[in-house]
Write a structure and sequence with these properties.
The protein contains 13 helices and eleven strands. With 339 residues, the protein is an alpha/beta fold.
């Protein structure tokens, strides 16, 4: 989720500079609503529901990897290849820098597949026709530098465009009206365990913010309900638990007074929507992956060391961040946004 959101700004800048450029985007099925709102068409002229891409190509490589030689997998790969090649793209750009994304870029049939000199997974470079050095400290700046290669000139720092689905906006507005107060969105989950701050401390934070009159809403995704329930138990049942589609999460996040969470997709969504953020970081580097373009306070203990190893072993530095530190940072952001 974070990879897609980080790329949005780069493609928004490209769309702004070259409005007539025809853009296709290949995306995993589970993240496609970040590009095209639920139930909206995936092709045609860009619209509020699909603001960036003329064509959203949806694949499910996770399922393919589970059954690589199954007839259904072969059929889906062949269909995706046909759909993408029919568009006759002049350039295929691999922003993610993974072997699978480089493979799909090459599958496009484009005569020019480009990527970074030092991608996330080094073997990806074997599938590029041209490689370019990334510039900038933050990943959003680095991705924009690849868009600049395509544009042939420097591009401005653009706020990323996200789909807006009016039905989802109306549903979420009604749901929040029933709550009746401003809310703080808390996201305790993370892509891997080492980035997860303890549920009990999130509960302490939720309880403290509830005492300020803010409703804590605990956002949770698939497989995270037990974690969300633990946070709610720790705060004495003061929170509202909410799970939603990505289209609905966008609508929910737009309305938050504050976001609190670790280095994970919903945090980067909040940053893209300019919501104030308290970011709790451990094994990942906030200089590269921190909240970008919004008012934020990043908490990271000096003992944390940057690692991209997807381990479930708790990061010792992350565990040194106290609930009081997070509560203090939240107070500062709430006060500054009220000024």
């Amino acid at each position: 989720m974070g990879d897609v959101i980080h790329t949005l700004a780069a493609v928004t800048a490209l769309r702004s500079a070259l409005p007539k450029l025809r853009i296709g985007w290949l995306v995993e099925e589970r993240w496609s609503e970040l590009l095209s709102a639920k139930e909206s068409p995936r092709r045609g002229a860009p619209s509020a529901q699909r603001p960036l891409a003329d064509f959203v190509h949806v694949v499910d490589t996770k399922r393919w990897r589970k059954s690589p030689i199954a007839s259904e997998t072969c059929k889906q790969i062949k269909s995706a290849r046909h759909e993408i090649r029919n568009q006759k793209y002049a350039v295929a750009a691999d922003f993610q820098g993974a072997l699978k994304s480089a493979f799909m870029a090459r599958l496009s049939g484009s005569s020019m597949v480009i990527g970074f000199e030092h991608p996330r997974e080094a073997p990806a470079t074997l599938l590029y026709h041209e490689k370019f050095a990334a510039t900038g400290a933050h990943v959003i700046e680095q991705y924009r530098s690849l868009s600049e290669v395509i544009a042939g000139r420097a591009l401005p720092d653009c706020a990323p465009l996200l789909p807006r689905d009016e039905q989802a906006e109306t549903r979420m507005a009604a749901k929040l009206a029933a709550i009746g107060r401003e809310f703080v969105l808390i996201n305790p989950g993370a892509g891997w365990g080492a980035k997860e701050w303890p549920a009990e401390r999130y509960g302490e934070v939720a309880r403290a913010l509830a005492s300020l009159g803010l409703v804590p809403i605990i956002n949770f995704g698939p497989g995270e309900q037990e974690l969300a329930t633990a946070v709610n138990h720790a705060c004495g049942g003061e929170a509202e638990l909410m799970s939603s589609s990505i289209t609905e999460l966008i609508a929910l996040t737009r309305r938050a007074r504050l976001f609190i969470g670790g280095d994970t997709g919903p945090l980067h969504l909040a940053a893209a929507l300019h919501i104030p953020i308290v970011a709790i970081f451990g094994p990942t580097d906030p200089e590269r992956n921190g909240p970008y373009g919004t008012n934020s306070i990043v908490l990271r203990n000096p003992s944390s060391r940057t690692s991209l190893s997807h381990t479930n072993v708790s990061d010792p530095g992350l565990l040194k961040i106290t609930a009081d530190e997070v509560i203090s940072a939240a107070h500062k952001l709430v006060e500054s946004s009220s000024a």
